[in-house]
Structure formats: C-alpha cells, structure tokens
Automatic annotation (TrEMBL):
UniProt source species: Methylopila turkensis
Organism lineage: Bacteria, Pseudomonadati, Pseudomonadota, Alphaproteobacteria, Hyphomicrobiales
Binding locations of NADP(+): 10-15
Keyword Oxidoreductase in record: yes
Name assigned to this protein: Homoserine dehydrogenase
Gene: hom_1
Associated pathway: Amino-acid biosynthesis; L-threonine biosynthesis; L-threonine from L-aspartate: step 3/5; Amino-acid biosynthesis; L-methionine biosynthesis via de novo pathway; L-homoserine from L-aspartate: step 3/3
Domain Aspartate/homoserine dehydrogenase NAD-binding stretches: 10-136
Signal peptide: none
Key words of the record: Amino-acid biosynthesis, Methionine biosynthesis, NADP, Oxidoreductase, Threonine biosynthesis
Enzyme class name: oxidoreductase
Top-level taxon: Bacteria
Gene Ontology MF annotations: homoserine dehydrogenase activity; NADP binding
Family in the record: Belongs to the homoserine dehydrogenase family.
Residues annotated as catalytic: 214
Length: 338
C-alpha cells in the first residue's frame, strides 16, 4: 500500500484538531484511496515530535524541546505539509519559511494561516508549479465555507463575473449586535469583548483587513487574479454610526461587511472591502452570528450562494483535511472518492 507521510507545523487549537482528525480518518484513507497515512512530525514554536514510524495522540502533550522549524519538518521526510501556525501579515512568517521549503522540495502544502498567502501567494503558486507540487488553501480562505473550491471545481467552465463574500465572522457578529440593539460600533465592540466574541485588539477584523486578505487569497487561488492588499480599497465597520444603524433599520436593510471582486472594462478583476446593506429578501441579509457566506455571479450558471457556520477549530481542521483528500484523490488518479 502506498504511504503518505504528513507533517503539521503549528500545533495550537487548529493544528491539534487537524492532527486528531487525520489520525481518526486513517481507515477511510486506506479504504477509499488505498493509502496508508502516517503523521511523522508536528511542531509548535520551540518544540515538536518526529517519528518516521508515525505519531499517536498519546504523545501530543510531550513535545520535545528544540524540535521545531523548517529543517526539522524537512528531515522528517513528510510528503505533505499542513501549515497551521500564526501569521505575521507584514512578513508572512513563520508560515512562509515552512511553505517555501516544502514547495521548493516538491512536497504538497495545505495552508491554514493567511499571512504568507496574502503577501506572497503568486510566488508560492509559481514555486509549486516549478516543482510539480500542490498548494491548497481552503483553511485560509473561509475554511468550512467553500470559496476557492467553489470557484475551482463547481463553476468550472463558467466565467465568473463577480464575487461577494461575508468572510469575517467577528464583524458579522458585531453588525448583528448593533442592529439588534440599535447601538453604535464602540458600544457593540465593548459588549463583544466582554463576552469574548471579539479580540482585545480587534483592528484586523473590524477595519476589514482579515476580509481583504481572504479576498486576495480567493482571487489568486480561485480565479488566477493577481491582486494584492494595496490594490483594494478597504473600509471596515469602525465608523458605522447609530444614525446609520437607525436608517438601515427603518429602510428594512441589513448591513454586512463585504469583500467584493468585479471585472473592470478590460475584464480584469478589481476588488474592495466595505459595508453594504441588503434587503431582507437577500440571502446575504440572513446570516446570524458568526455565519459566513459567498455569492458568485457567473455567465452560465447564474448566481450561486454558499453559507456556512462550522464550530471551530473542528471546521477549519475539516477544511484542511478536505484539501488533503483532494491531494490523495489526485495522487490516486481520481477526481473524487470512488
Ligand atoms: N482558530 C480558528 O478557529 C481558526 C480558523 C481559521 C484559521 N485559523 C488560522 O489558523 C492558524 C492557527 O490558529 P490557532 O487558533 O490554532 O492558533 P494557536 O492556538 O495560537 O496556535 C498557533 C500554533 O503555532 C505555533 N507556532 C508559533 N510560531 C511557530 C513557529 N515558528 N513554528 C512552528 N509553530 C509555531 C504555536 O506554538 P507555541 O504554542 O509554542 O507558541 C502554536 O502551537 C492561524 O493562522 C489562524 O489565523 C484559525
């Protein structure tokens, strides 16, 4: 039976959930793809585990100091890297270093952090092409909500005319709270922080940067459109006022923070992030709490809407392992499990 060795870099909530799920699904990988899957390495920032014979969950709480970094992952002999570390959005590190090493060595990569992809996605795709490796990014582009896969698989052959995405759960939660109680941004944020629903430093979410990064990733990986963050006009929800909230309520509209892609006159994709208000009849208006959604407008298939709200970190782990099964299926020469 063919062997597939997996390494996971970044061993926090998502990395651990992914590791557990991967091991739970080993029988499925054997039955469906004829592949024995072995987890050969995991690492956090300063410690990790490596075992060519395969790791089991009982060892996950005894990471060995020093076993971390791209050298350790490379030496483990992994065929597939799952990258689940944090993101420095200015440098793309630490993910970028792991990804460059894996892809340049011809190893497939499944990426969950956004920093490296939003900053250097085009270069990473080129690196993968040169070494005939695969790079999959569902976890970084909406996770359980299908975005790149929707564009890549389900709409194959149709021309995409535009995309609208409610891609950030925190801002959706905050706008919901503002509409429900008629309060402005500052009051809603204080409530959300007190309840643990927003970060103590919420700027990345509320100013629209998280949505912008996801938009750039799905444009690049789903549509081959080379946009960077600096190409987008990005407006968040921080300046939404009580007066605007009152106006939307009396007009029967629901505000959402939306990332948009559209085609300019020359047919090239342009993008931006900002608040749009939708009538109640629109599916994008009906997204409670931390629900995310994407609407794609095509030439031949009309409008397609996907809506999702999985519980984290399992939903993101599941999205990463969906990517893994696509890799196994491609290796087995099949488009989907038999
Ligand atoms: N949580 C979610 O629901 C969710 C959803 C979608 C996407 N994501 C993305 O998934 C990634 C992980 O999120 P998380 O919630 O699992 O974060 P987390 O719990 O903070 O875990 C991050 C992990 O990365 C490790 N790490 C830090 N620097 C590293 C390095 N240089 N090399 C290897 N590992 C390193 C940390 O190690 P130490 O413990 O030693 O610091 C920790 O194990 C983030 O990029 C996040 O944006 C998360």
């Amino acid at each position: 039976m063919e062997l597939c060795r997996v390494a996971i870099a970044g061993f926090g909530a998502v990395g651990r959930s992914t590791a557990g799920l991967l091991l739970d699904r080993r029988a499925r990988y054997r039955d469906v793809y004829g592949v024995e899957v072995r987890l050969v390495a995991v690492c956090a920032s300063r410690a990790g585990l490596v075992d060519p014979a395969g790791l089991e969950p009982e060892r996950f709480d005894d990471l060995e100091p020093g076993l971390s970094g791209p050298d350790v992952i490379e030496a483990s002999g992994a065929d597939v890297l799952i990258e689940a570390g944090p993101s420095d959005h200015r440098t793309g590190r630490p993910g970028l270093a792991y990804l460059e090493r894996a892809l340049s060595g011809g190893r497939d990569a499944i990426v969950i952090s956004k920093g490296a992809l939003a900053r250097d996605g085009a270069r990473l795709r080129a690196l993968a092409r040169r070494s005939a490796a695969t790079i999959k990014v569902s976890g970084a582009a909406g996770a359980a909500l299908p975005t790149v896969d929707l564009l890549d698989h389900n709409l194959l052959g149709s021309e995409v005319l535009g995309v609208e995405g409610v891609l950030n759960a925190t801002t959706n939660y905050l706008l919901d709270a503002m509409m429900a109680r008629g309060v402005g941004f500052e009051a809603a944020l204080r409530e959300a922080q007190a309840g643990g629903f927003a970060e103590s430093d919420p700027r990345d979410d509320v100013e629209g940067w998280d949505t912008a990064r996801k938009l750039v990733i799905l444009a690049g990986f789903g549509l081959g459109a080379e946009l960077s963050i600096s190409d987008l006009e990005v407006r968040g929800i921080q300046s939404v006022t009580e007066e605007q909230i009152a106006g939307w309520r009396s007009d029967g509209l629901v505000p959402k923070l939306v990332g948009r892609l559209w085609r300019d006159e020359a047919g090239a994709f342009r993008g931006g992030v900002g608040v749009d208000a939708y009538p109640l009849t629109d599916p994008l208006a009906r997204l409670p709490g931390k629900t995310k959604a994407i609407r794609v407008t095509t030439d031949g298939m009309g409008e397609i809407v996907a809506i999702g709200c999985g519980a984290e970190p399992l939903a993101t782990a599941s999205a990463a392992l969906k990517d893994f099964e696509h890799i196994l299926a491609a290796r087995a020469g099949r488009l989907r499990p038999a």
